[in-house]
Amino acid sequence: MKKGLLILGTALMTTLGLVACQQQEAAPAGDYVHIDIWATAAEQQVIEAVVNDYNSKQTEASAKFNYTFTAVAESDAGTTLAKDPTVDGAPALFLCADDHIFNLQSKDIVSELKGSRKDKVVAENSAVAVAGATLDGKLYGYPVTSDNGYFLWYNKGVSGIQDKVGSLEDLLALAKANNKKVLMDVANGWYANSFIMSPDACGVDSLYWEKDAEGKVKYVTNWDNETGVKVSEYIAGLLTPYYADGTLVTGSNENISAGFSDGSLIAAVSGTWMENELKPIVGNNLAATKLPTYKIEGKSYQMASFTGSKVYCLNKTRPVAEQKTAAALAELLTSKEAQLVRFEKRQALPCNNEAAKDSRYTANVTIGGAALVEQNAYACVQAKTAQDRYWDIGQAIGQAYLDSNLAGKTWTQFLKEQMDTLRVAQ
Predict the structure, then answer these.
(1) Which DSSP string corresponds to 349-367?
(2) CA atoms of 1 and 284, how far apart (whole Å)
Protein backbone atom coordinates (compact mmCIF):
# COMPACT_ATOMS: atom_id res chain seq x y z
CA MET A 1 0.00 0.00 0.00
CA LYS A 2 1.17 3.43 -0.49
CA LYS A 3 2.11 6.33 1.80
CA GLY A 4 -0.55 7.27 4.34
CA LEU A 5 -2.50 4.08 3.97
CA LEU A 6 0.07 1.80 5.45
CA ILE A 7 0.39 2.23 9.18
CA LEU A 8 3.84 2.16 10.74
CA GLY A 9 3.69 -0.73 13.16
CA THR A 10 5.11 -0.34 16.64
CA ALA A 11 8.75 -1.36 16.39
CA LEU A 12 8.96 -4.96 17.38
CA MET A 13 12.42 -6.35 17.91
CA THR A 14 12.20 -10.08 18.18
CA THR A 15 15.28 -12.21 17.72
CA LEU A 16 14.06 -15.52 16.40
CA GLY A 17 15.75 -18.70 15.33
CA LEU A 18 13.05 -19.59 12.84
CA VAL A 19 12.17 -20.49 9.26
CA ALA A 20 9.69 -22.57 7.44
CA CYS A 21 8.10 -24.73 4.81
CA GLN A 22 9.01 -27.88 3.01
CA GLN A 23 7.79 -26.51 -0.32
CA GLN A 24 10.92 -24.45 -1.07
CA GLU A 25 12.81 -26.15 -3.87
CA ALA A 26 14.84 -23.17 -5.17
CA ALA A 27 16.38 -22.32 -1.83
CA PRO A 28 18.09 -25.49 -0.55
CA ALA A 29 19.18 -25.56 3.07
CA GLY A 30 22.50 -23.85 3.42
CA ASP A 31 24.84 -22.01 5.76
CA TYR A 32 22.41 -19.25 6.63
CA VAL A 33 23.56 -16.28 8.68
CA HIS A 34 21.60 -14.00 10.97
CA ILE A 35 19.77 -11.20 9.13
CA ASP A 36 17.53 -8.28 9.97
CA ILE A 37 14.07 -8.08 8.39
CA TRP A 38 11.78 -5.07 8.02
CA ALA A 39 8.12 -5.72 7.26
CA THR A 40 4.73 -4.60 8.52
CA ALA A 41 3.52 -5.66 11.95
CA ALA A 42 0.78 -7.72 10.28
CA GLU A 43 3.38 -9.59 8.23
CA GLN A 44 5.16 -10.82 11.35
CA GLN A 45 2.59 -13.53 11.99
CA VAL A 46 3.02 -14.80 8.43
CA ILE A 47 6.79 -14.92 8.74
CA GLU A 48 6.60 -16.77 12.03
CA ALA A 49 4.11 -19.36 10.75
CA VAL A 50 6.00 -20.08 7.53
CA VAL A 51 9.39 -20.01 9.14
CA ASN A 52 8.49 -22.13 12.14
CA ASP A 53 7.11 -24.83 9.89
CA TYR A 54 10.27 -24.89 7.80
CA ASN A 55 12.63 -24.84 10.77
CA SER A 56 10.86 -27.73 12.42
CA LYS A 57 11.83 -29.91 9.46
CA GLN A 58 15.55 -29.05 9.51
CA THR A 59 18.03 -31.20 11.41
CA GLU A 60 21.06 -28.93 11.01
CA ALA A 61 21.27 -25.58 12.81
CA SER A 62 22.95 -24.01 9.78
CA ALA A 63 19.87 -24.82 7.70
CA LYS A 64 17.62 -22.72 9.93
CA PHE A 65 17.04 -19.01 9.53
CA ASN A 66 17.84 -16.70 12.38
CA TYR A 67 16.62 -13.13 12.18
CA THR A 68 15.63 -9.99 13.99
CA PHE A 69 12.24 -8.60 12.98
CA THR A 70 11.33 -4.91 13.06
CA ALA A 71 7.85 -3.68 12.17
CA VAL A 72 8.07 -0.96 9.51
CA ALA A 73 5.36 0.03 7.02
CA GLU A 74 5.96 -0.73 3.34
CA SER A 75 5.62 3.00 2.66
CA ASP A 76 8.37 3.85 5.14
CA ALA A 77 10.89 1.07 4.55
CA GLY A 78 11.90 2.21 1.08
CA THR A 79 11.93 5.87 2.05
CA THR A 80 14.11 5.26 5.11
CA LEU A 81 16.62 3.05 3.30
CA ALA A 82 16.83 5.47 0.37
CA LYS A 83 18.13 8.04 2.84
CA ASP A 84 20.57 5.66 4.55
CA PRO A 85 20.69 1.94 3.67
CA THR A 86 23.27 1.39 6.39
CA VAL A 87 21.17 2.87 9.20
CA ASP A 88 21.49 1.06 12.54
CA GLY A 89 19.56 -2.20 12.28
CA ALA A 90 19.38 -1.94 8.49
CA PRO A 91 17.71 -5.05 7.04
CA ALA A 92 19.11 -7.50 4.53
CA LEU A 93 15.49 -8.23 3.58
CA PHE A 94 12.71 -5.65 3.56
CA LEU A 95 9.11 -5.36 2.41
CA CYS A 96 8.16 -2.27 0.41
CA ALA A 97 5.58 -1.00 -2.07
CA ASP A 98 6.68 -1.52 -5.67
CA ASP A 99 6.76 2.20 -6.46
CA HIS A 100 9.86 2.57 -4.25
CA ILE A 101 11.99 0.34 -6.46
CA PHE A 102 13.09 2.99 -8.95
CA ASN A 103 14.39 5.31 -6.24
CA LEU A 104 16.19 2.46 -4.49
CA GLN A 105 17.69 1.15 -7.72
CA SER A 106 18.84 4.60 -8.81
CA LYS A 107 20.83 4.81 -5.56
CA ASP A 108 22.24 1.29 -5.98
CA ILE A 109 20.54 0.07 -2.80
CA VAL A 110 18.47 -2.86 -4.04
CA SER A 111 19.91 -6.04 -5.58
CA GLU A 112 18.93 -7.27 -9.02
CA LEU A 113 17.65 -10.84 -9.30
CA LYS A 114 19.31 -12.73 -12.11
CA GLY A 115 19.43 -16.15 -13.74
CA SER A 116 17.32 -18.91 -12.28
CA ARG A 117 16.06 -16.73 -9.44
CA LYS A 118 14.62 -14.23 -11.90
CA ASP A 119 13.23 -16.98 -14.14
CA LYS A 120 11.46 -18.56 -11.19
CA VAL A 121 9.83 -15.30 -10.07
CA VAL A 122 8.68 -14.44 -13.60
CA ALA A 123 7.30 -17.92 -14.23
CA GLU A 124 5.45 -18.26 -10.95
CA ASN A 125 3.83 -14.84 -10.50
CA SER A 126 1.26 -12.65 -12.22
CA ALA A 127 2.45 -10.33 -14.97
CA VAL A 128 1.20 -7.25 -13.09
CA ALA A 129 3.12 -8.19 -9.94
CA VAL A 130 6.31 -8.88 -11.91
CA ALA A 131 5.94 -5.62 -13.83
CA GLY A 132 5.82 -3.68 -10.59
CA ALA A 133 9.16 -5.15 -9.50
CA THR A 134 10.81 -4.70 -12.91
CA LEU A 135 12.74 -1.71 -14.20
CA ASP A 136 14.26 -1.54 -17.68
CA GLY A 137 13.82 -5.28 -18.02
CA LYS A 138 15.64 -6.02 -14.76
CA LEU A 139 13.94 -7.60 -11.75
CA TYR A 140 14.57 -6.08 -8.33
CA GLY A 141 12.38 -8.00 -5.93
CA TYR A 142 10.14 -10.89 -5.00
CA PRO A 143 6.41 -10.03 -5.43
CA VAL A 144 4.43 -10.74 -2.27
CA THR A 145 0.85 -9.69 -2.99
CA SER A 146 -1.18 -8.11 -5.78
CA ASP A 147 -3.67 -6.26 -3.60
CA ASN A 148 -2.19 -2.78 -3.28
CA GLY A 149 -5.32 -1.05 -4.54
CA TYR A 150 -8.58 0.40 -3.30
CA PHE A 151 -12.34 0.32 -3.75
CA LEU A 152 -15.50 1.22 -1.79
CA TRP A 153 -16.40 -0.32 1.57
CA TYR A 154 -19.95 0.34 2.80
CA ASN A 155 -22.58 -0.65 5.35
CA LYS A 156 -25.35 -2.33 3.37
CA GLY A 157 -27.62 -2.09 6.43
CA VAL A 158 -28.07 1.64 5.76
CA SER A 159 -31.47 2.17 4.18
CA GLY A 160 -31.28 2.76 0.43
CA ILE A 161 -27.50 2.54 0.15
CA GLN A 162 -27.45 -0.50 -2.14
CA ASP A 163 -29.01 1.63 -4.87
CA LYS A 164 -26.66 4.55 -4.30
CA VAL A 165 -23.13 3.13 -4.11
CA GLY A 166 -22.78 3.10 -7.88
CA SER A 167 -22.97 6.90 -8.10
CA LEU A 168 -20.71 9.31 -6.23
CA GLU A 169 -23.34 12.03 -6.37
CA ASP A 170 -26.07 9.74 -5.02
CA LEU A 171 -23.86 8.35 -2.26
CA LEU A 172 -22.85 11.77 -0.98
CA ALA A 173 -26.45 13.00 -1.15
CA LEU A 174 -27.65 9.98 0.83
CA ALA A 175 -25.02 10.54 3.50
CA LYS A 176 -25.93 14.22 3.85
CA ALA A 177 -29.65 13.49 4.04
CA ASN A 178 -29.02 11.07 6.92
CA ASN A 179 -26.41 13.25 8.68
CA LYS A 180 -23.76 10.60 7.97
CA LYS A 181 -20.30 10.66 6.40
CA VAL A 182 -18.34 9.20 3.49
CA LEU A 183 -14.56 8.92 3.83
CA MET A 184 -12.10 9.29 0.98
CA ASP A 185 -8.61 10.66 1.54
CA VAL A 186 -8.83 12.90 -1.52
CA ALA A 187 -5.95 15.15 -0.41
CA ASN A 188 -3.59 12.24 -0.99
CA GLY A 189 -1.99 11.56 -4.36
CA TRP A 190 -2.87 7.88 -4.11
CA TYR A 191 -6.57 8.71 -4.30
CA ALA A 192 -6.62 12.10 -6.01
CA ASN A 193 -5.92 10.50 -9.39
CA SER A 194 -9.22 8.57 -9.26
CA PHE A 195 -11.20 11.27 -11.02
CA ILE A 196 -8.94 12.57 -13.75
CA MET A 197 -7.54 9.13 -14.67
CA SER A 198 -11.00 7.69 -15.26
CA PRO A 199 -10.94 5.59 -18.44
CA ASP A 200 -13.79 7.85 -19.54
CA ALA A 201 -11.73 11.00 -18.87
CA CYS A 202 -7.97 11.35 -19.46
CA GLY A 203 -7.49 7.57 -19.13
CA VAL A 204 -5.54 5.14 -16.95
CA ASP A 205 -2.49 5.65 -19.19
CA SER A 206 -2.61 9.45 -18.96
CA LEU A 207 0.31 9.67 -16.53
CA TYR A 208 3.55 7.69 -16.64
CA TRP A 209 7.23 8.30 -16.14
CA GLU A 210 10.21 7.51 -18.31
CA LYS A 211 13.95 8.11 -18.28
CA ASP A 212 15.71 10.25 -20.84
CA ALA A 213 19.12 9.58 -22.41
CA GLU A 214 20.85 10.98 -19.34
CA GLY A 215 18.88 8.76 -16.97
CA LYS A 216 16.75 11.61 -15.67
CA VAL A 217 13.07 11.03 -14.98
CA LYS A 218 10.29 12.95 -16.68
CA TYR A 219 6.55 12.39 -16.79
CA VAL A 220 4.35 12.09 -19.83
CA THR A 221 0.87 13.37 -19.02
CA ASN A 222 -2.21 15.04 -20.50
CA TRP A 223 -3.97 15.90 -17.25
CA ASP A 224 -4.04 19.58 -18.22
CA ASN A 225 -5.96 19.02 -21.42
CA GLU A 226 -9.57 20.11 -21.96
CA THR A 227 -10.97 16.91 -20.45
CA GLY A 228 -8.74 17.12 -17.39
CA VAL A 229 -9.82 20.70 -16.77
CA LYS A 230 -13.51 19.86 -17.21
CA VAL A 231 -13.33 16.92 -14.82
CA SER A 232 -11.39 18.92 -12.23
CA GLU A 233 -13.81 21.83 -12.34
CA TYR A 234 -16.73 19.46 -11.86
CA ILE A 235 -15.16 17.39 -9.07
CA ALA A 236 -14.13 20.49 -7.14
CA GLY A 237 -17.64 21.86 -7.51
CA LEU A 238 -19.10 18.56 -6.30
CA LEU A 239 -16.76 17.80 -3.40
CA THR A 240 -16.03 21.21 -1.88
CA PRO A 241 -19.54 21.78 -0.41
CA TYR A 242 -19.72 18.24 1.01
CA TYR A 243 -16.24 18.60 2.49
CA ALA A 244 -17.13 21.96 3.99
CA ASP A 245 -20.25 20.64 5.73
CA GLY A 246 -18.54 17.48 7.00
CA THR A 247 -20.34 14.95 4.79
CA LEU A 248 -17.12 14.07 2.96
CA VAL A 249 -14.22 13.43 5.33
CA THR A 250 -10.61 12.37 5.03
CA GLY A 251 -8.57 10.23 7.40
CA SER A 252 -6.63 7.08 8.17
CA ASN A 253 -7.43 3.42 8.75
CA GLU A 254 -8.21 4.25 12.37
CA ASN A 255 -10.74 6.87 11.29
CA ILE A 256 -12.46 4.31 9.07
CA SER A 257 -12.72 1.77 11.87
CA ALA A 258 -13.93 4.39 14.34
CA GLY A 259 -16.49 5.80 11.91
CA PHE A 260 -18.05 2.43 11.11
CA SER A 261 -17.95 1.55 14.80
CA ASP A 262 -19.89 4.61 16.00
CA GLY A 263 -22.22 4.59 12.99
CA SER A 264 -21.19 7.99 11.67
CA LEU A 265 -19.61 6.52 8.53
CA ILE A 266 -21.65 4.71 5.87
CA ALA A 267 -18.92 4.25 3.24
CA ALA A 268 -15.16 4.60 2.83
CA VAL A 269 -12.60 4.24 0.07
CA SER A 270 -9.84 1.89 1.20
CA GLY A 271 -8.36 -1.55 0.51
CA THR A 272 -8.38 -5.21 1.47
CA TRP A 273 -6.31 -4.55 4.57
CA MET A 274 -9.42 -3.14 6.29
CA GLU A 275 -11.48 -6.34 6.17
CA ASN A 276 -10.20 -7.87 9.39
CA GLU A 277 -10.89 -4.58 11.16
CA LEU A 278 -14.34 -3.94 9.72
CA LYS A 279 -15.87 -7.42 9.77
CA PRO A 280 -16.22 -7.59 13.58
CA ILE A 281 -17.61 -4.05 13.60
CA VAL A 282 -20.13 -4.18 10.74
CA GLY A 283 -20.78 -7.92 10.72
CA ASN A 284 -23.00 -9.30 7.98
CA ASN A 285 -23.78 -5.78 6.76
CA LEU A 286 -20.20 -5.26 5.58
CA ALA A 287 -20.09 -4.95 1.78
CA ALA A 288 -17.68 -3.72 -0.87
CA THR A 289 -17.78 -2.81 -4.54
CA LYS A 290 -15.80 -0.98 -7.20
CA LEU A 291 -15.48 2.78 -6.94
CA PRO A 292 -18.58 4.72 -8.05
CA THR A 293 -19.07 6.76 -11.19
CA TYR A 294 -19.63 10.49 -11.43
CA LYS A 295 -21.62 12.21 -14.15
CA ILE A 296 -20.85 15.30 -16.23
CA GLU A 297 -23.35 16.62 -18.77
CA GLY A 298 -25.15 13.30 -18.80
CA LYS A 299 -22.02 11.20 -19.33
CA SER A 300 -20.88 8.71 -16.67
CA TYR A 301 -17.21 8.56 -15.70
CA GLN A 302 -15.97 5.46 -13.88
CA MET A 303 -13.52 6.37 -11.11
CA ALA A 304 -10.05 4.90 -11.56
CA SER A 305 -7.47 3.68 -9.04
CA PHE A 306 -3.88 2.63 -8.60
CA THR A 307 -2.95 -1.02 -8.40
CA GLY A 308 0.33 -2.49 -7.35
CA SER A 309 2.22 -5.08 -5.39
CA LYS A 310 4.22 -5.36 -2.23
CA VAL A 311 7.71 -6.68 -2.82
CA TYR A 312 10.45 -8.26 -0.73
CA CYS A 313 13.75 -6.65 -1.72
CA LEU A 314 17.39 -7.36 -0.88
CA ASN A 315 19.55 -4.60 0.57
CA LYS A 316 22.60 -4.49 -1.68
CA THR A 317 24.69 -2.74 0.95
CA ARG A 318 24.60 -5.72 3.30
CA PRO A 319 27.34 -8.41 3.25
CA VAL A 320 27.05 -11.04 0.52
CA ALA A 321 26.34 -13.81 3.04
CA GLU A 322 23.37 -11.82 4.36
CA GLN A 323 22.07 -11.18 0.85
CA LYS A 324 22.22 -14.89 0.02
CA THR A 325 20.33 -15.77 3.18
CA ALA A 326 17.81 -13.01 2.50
CA ALA A 327 17.26 -14.32 -1.04
CA ALA A 328 16.58 -17.83 0.23
CA LEU A 329 14.16 -16.53 2.85
CA ALA A 330 12.44 -14.26 0.31
CA GLU A 331 11.82 -17.24 -1.98
CA LEU A 332 10.35 -19.11 0.94
CA LEU A 333 8.12 -16.22 2.02
CA THR A 334 6.75 -15.68 -1.49
CA SER A 335 6.18 -19.32 -2.42
CA LYS A 336 2.74 -20.73 -3.17
CA GLU A 337 2.27 -22.11 0.33
CA ALA A 338 3.49 -18.95 2.01
CA GLN A 339 1.09 -16.84 -0.03
CA LEU A 340 -1.79 -19.06 1.02
CA VAL A 341 -0.73 -18.67 4.64
CA ARG A 342 -0.67 -14.90 4.07
CA PHE A 343 -4.18 -15.04 2.61
CA GLU A 344 -5.42 -17.05 5.56
CA LYS A 345 -3.90 -14.75 8.15
CA ARG A 346 -4.03 -11.35 6.43
CA GLN A 347 -6.53 -11.79 3.59
CA ALA A 348 -3.74 -10.64 1.27
CA LEU A 349 -4.46 -11.58 -2.35
CA PRO A 350 -1.82 -13.93 -3.77
CA CYS A 351 0.18 -13.01 -6.87
CA ASN A 352 1.63 -16.52 -7.17
CA ASN A 353 -0.21 -18.09 -10.11
CA GLU A 354 -0.70 -21.49 -8.49
CA ALA A 355 -1.82 -20.00 -5.18
CA ALA A 356 -4.42 -17.90 -7.02
CA LYS A 357 -5.88 -21.11 -8.51
CA ASP A 358 -5.82 -23.09 -5.26
CA SER A 359 -9.18 -23.95 -3.73
CA ARG A 360 -7.94 -22.67 -0.37
CA TYR A 361 -8.06 -19.25 -2.01
CA THR A 362 -10.77 -19.53 -4.66
CA ALA A 363 -13.31 -21.04 -2.26
CA ASN A 364 -12.71 -18.31 0.29
CA VAL A 365 -12.33 -15.12 -1.71
CA THR A 366 -13.00 -12.27 0.66
CA ILE A 367 -15.47 -9.42 0.34
CA GLY A 368 -12.64 -7.00 -0.31
CA GLY A 369 -10.83 -9.34 -2.65
CA ALA A 370 -13.82 -9.60 -4.98
CA ALA A 371 -14.27 -5.82 -4.98
CA LEU A 372 -10.59 -5.25 -5.74
CA VAL A 373 -10.69 -7.60 -8.72
CA GLU A 374 -13.73 -5.67 -9.98
CA GLN A 375 -12.00 -2.30 -9.54
CA ASN A 376 -8.72 -3.45 -11.10
CA ALA A 377 -10.40 -3.32 -14.49
CA TYR A 378 -10.16 0.47 -14.10
CA ALA A 379 -6.72 0.68 -12.50
CA CYS A 380 -3.24 1.73 -13.57
CA VAL A 381 0.02 0.11 -12.42
CA GLN A 382 1.33 2.38 -9.70
CA ALA A 383 5.02 1.60 -10.14
CA LYS A 384 4.89 2.75 -13.78
CA THR A 385 2.66 5.75 -13.09
CA ALA A 386 3.87 7.47 -9.97
CA GLN A 387 7.27 8.04 -8.41
CA ASP A 388 8.31 10.30 -5.54
CA ARG A 389 7.86 13.57 -7.44
CA TYR A 390 4.24 12.82 -8.23
CA TRP A 391 2.96 12.53 -4.68
CA ASP A 392 3.21 16.21 -3.77
CA ILE A 393 1.56 17.13 -7.07
CA GLY A 394 -1.24 14.63 -6.49
CA GLN A 395 -1.74 15.96 -2.98
CA ALA A 396 -2.01 19.54 -4.25
CA ILE A 397 -4.62 18.57 -6.84
CA GLY A 398 -6.58 16.54 -4.31
CA GLN A 399 -6.57 19.39 -1.79
CA ALA A 400 -7.84 21.74 -4.49
CA TYR A 401 -10.72 19.34 -5.16
CA LEU A 402 -11.66 19.67 -1.49
CA ASP A 403 -11.36 23.41 -0.94
CA SER A 404 -11.38 24.87 -4.50
CA ASN A 405 -8.45 27.08 -3.47
CA LEU A 406 -6.33 27.62 -6.57
CA ALA A 407 -4.53 30.73 -5.29
CA GLY A 408 -6.22 32.92 -7.88
CA LYS A 409 -5.54 30.60 -10.82
CA THR A 410 -8.02 28.93 -13.15
CA TRP A 411 -8.07 25.15 -13.31
CA THR A 412 -6.42 25.41 -16.73
CA GLN A 413 -3.55 27.41 -15.26
CA PHE A 414 -3.32 25.34 -12.10
CA LEU A 415 -3.15 21.97 -13.86
CA LYS A 416 -0.65 23.19 -16.45
CA GLU A 417 1.61 24.49 -13.71
CA GLN A 418 1.46 21.16 -11.87
CA MET A 419 1.99 19.04 -14.98
CA ASP A 420 4.84 21.20 -16.27
CA THR A 421 6.62 20.52 -12.97
CA LEU A 422 6.35 16.79 -13.66
CA ARG A 423 7.35 17.07 -17.32
CA VAL A 424 10.75 18.56 -16.51
CA ALA A 425 13.47 15.90 -16.52
CA GLN A 426 15.20 15.60 -13.17
Answers:
(1) PP-BHHHHHSHHHHTT--H
(2) 26
Largest CA distance in the chain: 71
Pair 300, 198 in one domain: yes
What is residue 66's three-state secondary structure? strand
Q: Is 192 exposed, middle or buried (0-12, 13-18, 19+ CB in 10 A)?
A: buried
Indicate the number of domains in the chain: 2
Cβ atoms of 73 and 7 closer than 8 Å: yes
Position 127 scores a pLDDT of 86
Tell me if 250 sits within 8 A of 187, measured CB to CB: yes
- Each residue of 161-187: pLDDT tens digit? 999 999 999 999 999 999 999 999 999
Which pLDDT value is given to residue 29? 55
The residue range of the domain holding 302 is 151-307+376-423
Which region among 28-37, 108-117, 120-129 has the lowest average model confidence (pLDDT)?
A: 28-37
| 174 and 109 within one domain | no
Whether the pLDDT of residue 419 is over 90: the answer is yes
Residues 6+ apart with CB under 8 A from 57: 22
CATH number at residue 204: 3.40.190.10
**Could you tell me if 11 and 61 lie in one domain?**
yes
Q: 315 and 285 share a domain? A: no
The answer to whether residues 303 and 343 belong to one domain is no
- Which residues, 6 or more positions from 181, have their beta carbon under 8 angstroms from its beta carbon? 175, 246, 247, 248, 249, 259, 264, 265, 266
Residue 97 and residue 240 in one domain: no
Residues 270 and 312 in one domain: no
Give the mean model confidence (pLDDT) for residues 274-280.
94
Closest CA relative to residue 397, chosen from 285, 239, 262, 212: 239
Has residue 219 been placed in a domain? yes
Is residue 371 assigned to a domain? no
What DSSP string describes 109-161?
A: -BPPB-HHHHHHHHHHB-HHHHHHTEETTEE--EEEES----EEEEETTSTTG
Query: Is 60 strand, coil or helix?
Result: coil
CA atoms within 13 A on the CB side of 129: 26
